[in-house]
Structures are given as structure tokens and as C-alpha cells.
Design goal:
With about 450 residues, the protein is of the alpha/beta class. It has 17 helices and 17 strands. Strands 2-1-6-5-4-3 form a six-stranded antiparallel beta sheet, with helices on one face. The chain has a five-stranded parallel beta sheet with strand order 8-11-14-7-15. The chain has a two-stranded antiparallel ribbon with strand order 9-10. This is HTH-type transcriptional regulatory protein TyrR. Keywords: Aromatic hydrocarbons catabolism, ATP-binding, Coiled coil, Nucleotide-binding.
Length: about 450
């Protein structure tokens, strides 16, 4: 039995199957007063009579009486039973030992079951740990690719999570927002976390920088001579992304051509008669309300419906102030590292960063920080280091209202601030009047009233 059963236990032991057919027995069985035992024979035929007695059996053979303690062995592949035979003189003394043996076997079985449960939980923990490790590696990979992504506000966090869900879905994404809010950063992030990052490029076309006559060549390519041609941006974006910035600048004619190519995913090279399939995913950014342009007849409705697969609106920086300090820290670190500086900002300047209106959004913030850090001698910058136009900027409406001044004083204060800024920027009262949308005579009168002179 190779030690799997207590066959060497110094008591007569037999092993049977469910039908009481003998499978094995030990040497002590031969000393029992009944006919010789043989494998394959039924244990029932060894005794004159078997009498049930609770959880035991009493066996009779001639004048001898035996107690049979039977135990089912779950460790066997098939059901088997262990029978211990005790003569009448010893079974009372040894019964406790047998029960102890049985209890130990039960406890061992219970421990084995518990061990199996713990092993299963360990396996689950190992699987979960592997999953967390993979997710952490993915996050670290994204962070290494997207060090320019600086997000703390719930608004922007939700937007970035949305574009990550859209990264591998072939549907156009329309990104809208004021100039400088970070539309390019969002587009680049979408590209970097997508599968197309491995198969193609992110090709950006600024539709507002090139006249429409040249823009058609840039998009669709141009013939250089009879045998060669320059590929267009759409062709270069095959297997990748085509990023159309300021798409509102496209002419109606060019909008129609673009829709045919993108809607059918087909492209005709130069003088070739057959069209070729292309696999381009389109991302669009705009500062305008394309729906209003459609209503005004300056943008094609069919192209608008195709491009706006998933619209994403990036809020201005003034509506997500939680992002201001992380952005300041990011650009401060970048500029210090790039130019080997040790610049820092005092509390008054940090307060200014937080309260400023930032009409130019993140781009304005980045430019101001670089200007400050490169043109100031001191390592700790203060509000007094700000350029003049920032130190004398007009107050925001909220600031003016908080002061609860009389309306007349508020209006005069605002007029004076606006005219002072205009006088610094423009050379003539005619230019100021044109910019402010009023008459030159009004500008001259107001400047005389507030004693403002053009610099």
C-alpha cells in the first residue's frame, strides 16, 4: 500500500471495495481465528454472522467475537473501506485510539480542503497582481509618452478618459474649444494611446495657414511632372490619423472633395484611373461653432454630420482653475531644465496666476512663464516682475463687483483701464477707435478726460 493506509498499524486490517470484496490486508489478519483470507473474496463469508451495533459491526466466528470498525477512504480513486478487527478483550481499550486515528484523518482532510481553498485564493491574488502590474505598466507607458498631459480638474480628467475610450474606435472626433485650451495636446494623447500609434502617423493639416488653392495640393497631393508626384497629407496618413485643425477655414468646394475621400475611404493618385483604398481616421479641431456655420451656409451639413462623430468640448482655463498650478509647475520645470535655471515664484505671483482671466488659455500661460523666467534676473519672481500689460490690466467683472463701487465710478474705472492698454498698443486714436468699435472723437474726448496719452 506504500504507506498510504495505516496497513502497518499493529492491528488486523483489511481493505475492501463498496461490495466488501477484499482488496488488501496486513500480516496481523493471519492471527485472527477464522478461515484464511484471500484477495477477491467477500468479507461477509469470513464470519458466521455480522450484527450491526451503531457505527460498528460485531462479527461472530465460532466462539470468538470481533468488533469491526469501518472507515471510508476518500483518498482512493474509487470507494474503499478500511476494516479494523478487534477481539473482545482489547477493543474497549483501543477504541479511543482508533477514534483518534479517525479524527486525525478527518482533520487532515479538512486541512487539505482548507489548503486547497488557500491555494485557490493565492492563485487569484497572483492573477490580480499580474493584472495590476500590467495596468501599472500601461499607465507608466502612457505617462512616459504623454509627459505633456497635465490634468487635475475633474472636467479635464473626464475628457481625457473619454478620448482614451475612443482611441481604438474608428469614428471621427470633433474637438472644440477656444484658442490655446490644449486641443493639440488632447489629439496627440489620443493618437499615442491608440493602436494606430504602431501602424501609422499623426498627420496635422492647419487649414487656416494655407490658402485653399494650395491646401488642395497639400491634402490630395500634386503632380511634379509626367512621371512623379508629391503625396498629399491624406495619403501620408494611411493607417494613422489625419488631424484637420481649423477645419472651418476649408472652402465649400474643398469640403466636398474631402467628404468624398473620407466618406468612401478611396483615393485616386494623380493620373491613375483606379481608386485605391485608404485607411485613415479623422480628428478635427475647431474654434468655431460649425452648426452655426451650417445654418449660415458657410459649412457643408453633410461634412459636418460626418465629422462630428463624437464631439469633445475642451473648457477654457478660467473654468478649470484646479489645472492652473499643475500647469505652472510643469512649465516651470520644463523651462528651468531647458535653460538651466533655478527660477521660482512667490505667493503673490502664484495668486496672480490663479486669479488671472487667461483669455489666451494654456498657451498664454506658457508664453508668460517663459517670458518671465528668461527676462528676470532674480531667481524668485514676484508680481512686480510681471510685464506692464499684466500689472496694469483691467480688473475682471467679479473683482469690480466685489468692491461695490457706484456704477458711475465702475464705468469710469473700466474705461480708463481699457484706454490705457489701447494707448500702449496702438499708435493713433484712429486705430484705437477702430479696435474699440467707437468714433475717433469719443476716443479723443475720453483720453483727454482721463489724461491718457499715446506712448
Amino acid at each position: 500500500m506504500n504507506g498510504e493506509l495505516p496497513i502497518s498499524f499493529p492491528l488486523p486490517i483489511m481493505i475492501t471495495d463498496e461490495r466488501n470484496i477484499i482488496i488488501d490486508f496486513n500480516q496481523y489478519v493471519t492471527g485472527v481465528q477464522f478461515p484464511p483470507i484471500q484477495k477477491g473474496k467477500s468479507i461477509n463469508r469470513l464470519f458466521d454472522r455480522l450484527q450491526p451495533s451503531g457505527e460498528f459491526h460485531i462479527a461472530f466466528y465460532n466462539r470468538y467475537k470481533y468488533l469491526i470498525v469501518s472507515t471510508k477512504l476518500d483518498s482512493y480513486k474509487q470507494a474503499r473501506f478500511l476494516h479494523i478487527l478487534l477481539d473482545g478483550d482489547h477493543y474497549v481499550d483501543l477504541l479511543d485510539k482508533i477514534k483518534e486515528l479517525e479524527m486525525n484523518r478527518y482533520n487532515l482532510s479538512e486541512l487539505n480542503e482548507r489548503n486547497d481553498e488557500l491555494n485557490e485564493k493565492l492563485r487569484q491574488c497572483q492573477d490580480l497582481n499580474a493584472l495590476y502590474k500590467t495596468q501599472l505598466e500601461q499607465i507608466e507607458t502612457k505617462l512616459s509618452k504623454d509627459s505633456e498631459v497635465v490634468v487635475k480638474s475633474e472636467k479635464m480628467d473626464g475628457i481625457f478618459r473619454l478620448v482614451e475610450r475612443l482611441a481604438n474606435i474608428d469614428i471621427p472626433v470633433l474637438v472644440q474649444g477656444e484658442p490655446g485650451v490644449g486641443k493639440d495636446v488632447l489629439i496627440r494623447h489620443l493618437y499615442r494611446v491608440s493602436n494606430r500609434y504602431e501602424t501609422g502617423k499623426l498627420i496635422k493639416v492647419n487649414c487656416g495657414e494655407v490658402p485653399n488653392e494650395l491646401l488642395e495640393w497639400e491634402l490630395f497631393g500634386s503632380e511634379l511632372d509626367m512621371t512623379s508626384r508629391a503625396p498629399g497629407m491624406i495619403e501620408l496618413a494611411d493607417k494613422g490619423f489625419l488631424f484637420l485643425d481649423k477645419v472651418e477655414k476649408l472652402s465649400l468646394e474643398l469640403q466636398g472633395k474631402l467628404l468624398r475621400v473620407l466618406g468612401e475611404n478611396k483615393f485616386q493618385k494623380g493620373r491613375e484611373s483606379e481608386e485605391r483604398k485608404i485607411d485613415v481616421r479623422v480628428l478635427v479641431a475647431t474654434q468655431k461653432d460649425l452648426k452655426r456655420m451650417v445654418e449660415a451656409g458657410t459649412f457643408r451639413e453633410d461634412l459636418y454630420n460626418w465629422l462630428r462623430g463624437v464631439p469633445v468640448v475642451v473648457p477654457p482655463l478660467r473654468e478649470r482653475k484646479e489645472d492652473i498650478f499643475p500647469l505652472v509647475h510643469y512649465y516651470q520645470t520644463q523651462i528651468n531644465r531647458k535653460y538651466e535655471l533655478l527660477k521660482s515664484f512667490d505667493e503673490s505671483l502664484k495668486k496672480f496666476f490663479y486669479e488671472h482671466h487667461w483669455s489666451g488659455n494654456v498657451r498664454e500661460l506658457a508664453h508668460l512663464l517663459e517670458r518671465l523666467m528668461l527676462t528676470t534676473d532674480s531667481n524668485e519672481l514676484t508680481v512686480s516682475d510681471l510685464p506692464r500689460e499684466y500689472r496694469e490690466e483691467p480688473q475682471s467683472t467679479e473683482q469690480i463687483l466685489r468692491e461695490v463701487e457706484p456704477l458711475k465710478d465702475v464705468v469710469e474705472h473700466a474705461e480708463r483701464r481699457v484706454l490705457m492698454l489701447a494707448a500702449q498698443k496702438y499708435q493713433t486714436t484712429y486705430q484705437i477707435a477702430k479696435q474699440l468699435g467707437t468714433s475717433q472723437a469719443t476716443v479723443v474726448r475720453k483720453m483727454q478726460k482721463y489724461d491718457i496719452k499715446i506712448k
